[in-house]
Amino acid sequence: MGAHKIYDSTLNTFDIKYDLVIECVGNDRGTFEQAQQMINFNGTIITIGVFKKPVVFNLQQLWNQNITIHTGILNCYNLKELVLKIENKEIIPKYLVSKTFNKNEVLKAYETFMETDIFKVVVKL
Length: 125
Prior knowledge:
Radius of gyration: 16 Å
CATH class of the largest domain: Alpha Beta
Oligomer: single chain
CATH architecture of the largest domain: 3-Layer(aba) Sandwich
Number of helices: 4
Strand order of the largest sheet: 1-2-3
Number of domains: 2
Shape: globular
Helix content: 10-25%
């Protein structure tokens, strides 16, 4: 499941359709809507974004595309699988992480997460 292409969501071009789109930004930037525009027939959208506001799901445009949508966050059931994918370099976390903090900056990491538009925070132990 390694990424074959990283899409720049600021381009707003949807000329290529993908079998798998992983939306990992969340928030109110319209990336979930963009993922819907990028998905191919029989494709899969996986969203691991954190959403603070409602987003649009264009079912009226997607009902006949036979797509699959997976949502969720990391939990104890899929953590081992995720770690293995990182170790095997199938997933490169630096493309998913917004900000990294040292272990002595845990409070600062939490405050940054709560006060800004940064959602994927890593604290190095």
